[in-house]
Structure formats: C-alpha cells, structure tokens
Amino acid sequence: MSAIIDTTGPPRTEERRVLIEDVTWQRYEQLCTCFGDTRAVRITFIDGSLEIMSPIGEQHERIKSNLGVLLEAYLDVVGIRVYRRGGFTLKQPGVAAGEPDESYCIDTDKAVPDLVIEVVFSSEALSKLPLYRETGVAEVWIWQHERLDIHCLEGRTDRVGPRSKLLPTFDTALLARFVTMPDQYDAVQAFRKALT
Known about the structure:
Elements: E1 16-20, H1 25-35, E2 42-46, E3 49-54, H2 58-78, E4 82-84, E5 90-92, E6 96-98, E7 102-106, E8 115-119, H3 129-135, E9 139-144, E10 147-154, E11 157-161, H4 172-179, H5 184-195
Parallel strand pairs: 8-9
Antiparallel strand pairs: 1-3, 2-3, 2-6, 4-7, 5-6, 7-8, 9-10, 10-11
Helix pairs in contact: 2-5, 4-5
C-alpha cells in the first residue's frame, strides 16, 4: 500500500480529518509504515479510534509556531531552562499513539515531555488527552477558539483552566493578545516588552 500526496497547487489552509472506529493496534502500525515519515499526514490512535489528519493547514502551523516561540520567550525572560522536543510520536503500545504539535521539557531533558501544545480548529478532532495521560505528560495546552486552556493532568482526572501548575506565573490572557499577530518577530518583541 502506498500513499500519494499531492503537493501541486497553492498550500491548503484547511485540515481534513477522517475518523475510523474499531481499529486494532496492528492496523495502526501498518498505516504508520505506509505513510512513513511524511509530515503532511498525522495519525492518532486512541483506544481503537484512528484519526488521520491531512494536510496540516497553514494557519494551524502558524499558530503552533507562534505559541512555541512565545512560550520560549517567556521561559527565557523568567530564567527557566527549557528543552524543546517538537512533534514526535508518543506511544503507549496497544492503547494510544500520536504526535503533539509542540512539546517541551521544563528544567531537565526527559523522555516524556512535561508540557505539550495542541492547536485545534475542529470540534470533531479526536482528543489526545488520553494519550498524554497514559504517557505521563503533566500539562496539555490547547489553543481553540482564540484562547488557551490548560489541562493539568493529575492521575485519571484533569483540571482545566487558565493557570499552569508547571508555570504558575504564566499569564495566558497576556499570551493570547500576541498569538495571532501577523508578524511573529513583532509578536515576540512586544510580548517580551510586556513581560518586563
């Protein structure tokens, strides 16, 4: 089985999602092999549900990138060590697998990130919270509807709100003012100025 990805024409700005139920872990692994290391398709598996998302939209990538550089600017200003892990596949074999949009280790580099960022444009998106809970991620920052919600994962539950447990002085309302600025450099400079 091979995948054909059309790269001709203008870049797509919308994401397309396909959700398939009752998929085995073995079928998930076969699909991952078919798509290889392409960044144009993301596959998420959560307890028998399989989501294929393609292509990653231009707006999605811009917001994800802006969130990452703004978070890194904050950590630099306040003097907290950070190790950017990016988007790589987190797995709990047989149960869940998927890629965060961005991920970070705070203070020390670790196999499992402390914090992941997800940008969600569709209410039909498969929630990756079970994946992050299963793999031991402490916080999931979800940007949706022009706002950032922080999910602090504590055992089998999660606390949702505007405050980070890992970074208690981080102001999500301040961050939201800069995430959608059209020029990333200007956004980072303005954000740094607002922090000092």
